[in-house]
Known about the structure:
- This protein has about 300 residues and is an alpha+beta fold.
- The strands form four sheets. It has a five-stranded antiparallel beta sheet, with helices on both faces. It has a two-stranded antiparallel ribbon with strand order 6-7. A two-stranded antiparallel sheet has the order 8-11.
- It folds into two domains: about 1-155, 2-Layer Sandwich (Phosphorylase Kinase, domain 1), CATH 3.30.200; about 160-300, Transferase(Phosphotransferase) domain 1 (Transferase(Phosphotransferase), domain 1, Orthogonal Bundle), CATH 1.10.510.10.
- The radius of gyration is 20 Å and the shape is flat.
- Strand 2 and strand 3 (about 80-85) form a beta hairpin.
- The chain has helices at about 1-15, 40-50, 95-100, 115-135, 175-195, 215-220, 250-265, 275-280, 285-300; strands at about 55-65, 70-75, 80-85, 140-145, 150-155, 155, 160, 200, 210, 230-235, 240-245.
- It contains nine helices and eleven strands.
- Bound molecules: adenosine-5'-diphosphate and magnesium ion.
- The site of adenosine-5'-diphosphate has 21 residues, from strand 1, strand 2, strand 3 and strand 5.
- Magnesium ion binds near residues 207, 208 and 237.
Amino acid sequence: MAEKEGLFEIEKWVSERQLPKGKRRKKDYRDRKTEQYVFDIPTLETLYKFSKKGIIKALGGPVSQGKESVIFHAIGGEDEELAIKMYKINTAHFNAMIDYISGDPRFEPLRKDRRSVIYTWAQKEYKNLKRATEAGVRVPRPIACDKNVLIMEFIGKEGIAAPRLHDLPADMLKADVELEELFLRLISAIKTLYEKGMLVHADLSEFNIVMKGYVERELQTRAPAGAEIALEPVLIDMGQSLLVSHPHAERYLKRDVQNLTVFFRKHGLAYSEEEVMQMIQGAERAAESSQRAYRGLGKG
Ligand SMILES: Nc1ncnc2c1ncn2[C@@H]1O[C@H](COP(=O)(O)OP(=O)(O)O)[C@@H](O)[C@H]1O
Ligand SMILES: [Mg+2]
């Protein structure tokens, strides 16, 4: 019965593109333009498979539409909110993906036809999210992955996705203790990911950090007041994340650190890249790494 319901909900969504009233995603401050999106047949089949297994019960609206992927809100078998990331088979990033995957022993030998590369990329993000979770770094909890479809925990509430660090209102980002605390939490997450997860995010910036608790707070202000809900930064988008053993890992680590120090400097927090690299790697290692990253860049 549950299976039938699941299928029905998805079929209904495919024809109507919407959840039943009351479950629809509300428009919010984060609304970005999302084009109409039509699933290709293999993607639909994969969604049906997940639905039959009871992993997805209903499919909600689009959360984001990027060049590589689209993300949808969904409801899982236990009524939990899910994010479904579907990688586009026709992504223009195809060649760049091969560069990021080669050199990773987890995915050797790599088949280089388009479909295989995209499927491997989805698996790579899934495995990276798993590694990060196991290391104790806050990322969306990965739930399942098949072909180009990755299912994970939804960060946000009632279909409203958590804002990205980039989207936070300016008054929340004035330099005060809270801002420094947020920065240090992020650096500590990079360090844990590096040391325990043996991973470098490799695309970390204010666009790939979302703030859990923000939407929950907004929804709470409409209800009787309770204790203030804490804000928690969550790292997302780990398809390109690399093992620390990857030849370009150090270079990407530096770039991640640079992106964050530049962002926080704009908001009045003055940490230098060098001191942050030392916080992550220790003084000696950071100096070596700086030389290696320099040499790596030379090689292109
Ligand atoms: N698990 C998630 N929960 C809620 N929103 C998400 C989740 N994953 C991604 N998003 C939203 O979708 C956007 C795009 O996702 P992302 O993984 O960064 O893909 P890309 O940048 O490659 O398009 C994010 O900026 C974020 O707003
Ligand atoms: Mg992103």
